[in-house]
Design goal:
The protein is of the alpha+beta class. The chain has a three-stranded mixed sheet, with helices on one face. Helix 2 links the parallel strand 2 and strand 3.
């Protein structure tokens, strides 16, 4: 089940990602951990996603989330690439990985 804040977080994170040439692929909020972990998966639209992409997105999104004060308590922001075993969920995913097992 998706956390109720996820749609708002994705709505805020998507323009931040676009400014960096990135795309938000997925977001999850693990509230069963202490502190809770907000994980944002990103993809570079022009090349393989790098650690620098994740770091840039983390810093930019952190400022945006802090300004919005959407999450009132302490949490960990984790920005990552979705990696190889991710689920294909959009038309773009199917086009990108067509022909691969």
């Amino acid at each position: 089940m998706t956390h109720p804040l996820i749609p708002q977080i994705v709505k805020m994170a998507s323009p931040v990602a676009a400014q960096l040439g990135l795309e938000v692929v997925d977001a999850t909020f693990h509230t069963n951990q202490y502190p809770p972990v907000l994980r944002i998966d990103i993809r570079n639209l022009h090349q393989d996603t790098s650690l620098d992409d994740c770091e840039s997105m983390s810093h930019a999104l952190e400022a945006t989330l802090d300004a919005a004060d959407l999450i009132p308590d302490a949490y960990v922001l984790e920005v990552s690439s979705p990696g190889i075993p991710r689920t294909l969920s959009t038309d773009r995913d199917f086009i990108s990985f067509k022909g691969f097992p």
